[in-house]
Write a structure and sequence with these properties.
Blueprint lengths: L2 E3 L2 E3 L12 E4 L5 E3 L7 E5 H4 L6 H4 L30 E5 L2 E3 L2 H21 L4 H13 L5
Antiparallel strand pairs: 1-2, 3-4, 3-7, 5-6
Length: about 140
């Protein structure tokens, strides 16, 4: 049904955009990314690291500024010879942990991503990839308040 005002039919307002539904994953270096189909990236890690008291790789490696975030040789990485550690030669698959984000968390994550793209565009306005990424992020954010 439409409302009329002075004989002119008005269309009803469009329904609000839904809030984004995202799966956010945490990488071994502590950074976050969107998980495809709710599954995080798979990494091969030494068994002795994976069995470290049920901690995530981000916790084992020290988070965003931990050992995994530095280039080779930039950190003093503690180690023991493989022969002295049981299972040191074994590697296992470990998936990055993921979770379904709340609407507020999803919008905050997308805002962070958009801020990063905007920073890139301030440096290089002609970056077509960043422009396309910005458009996609803004589309995803339509349901954010």
């Amino acid at each position: 049904m439409t409302n009329t005002q002075a004989g002119v039919a008005q269309a009803p307002p469009p329904p609000p955009a839904p809030t984004p539904k995202l799966t956010i994953c945490r990488a071994g270096d502590g950074s976050r990314y969107l998980g495809a189909n709710g599954v995080g990236r798979v990494n091969w890690v030494p068994y002795t690291v994976a069995s470290d008291y049920n901690r995530s790789l981000a916790e084992v490696y020290g988070g965003r500024d931990g050992l995994a975030s530095r280039g080779p040789g930039a950190a003093n990485i503690p180690h023991r010879p493989a022969s002295s550690v049981a299972g040191a030669g074994y590697y296992v698959q470990v998936s990055d942990p993921c979770h379904q984000a709340t609407p507020q968390e999803a919008c905050a994550f997308l805002r962070e991503q958009l801020d990063g793209v905007d920073a890139r565009l301030r440096q290089r306005r002609d970056d077509a990839d960043a422009q396309a990424e910005r458009t996609g992020l803004r589309d995803q954010m339509r349901g954010c308040g």
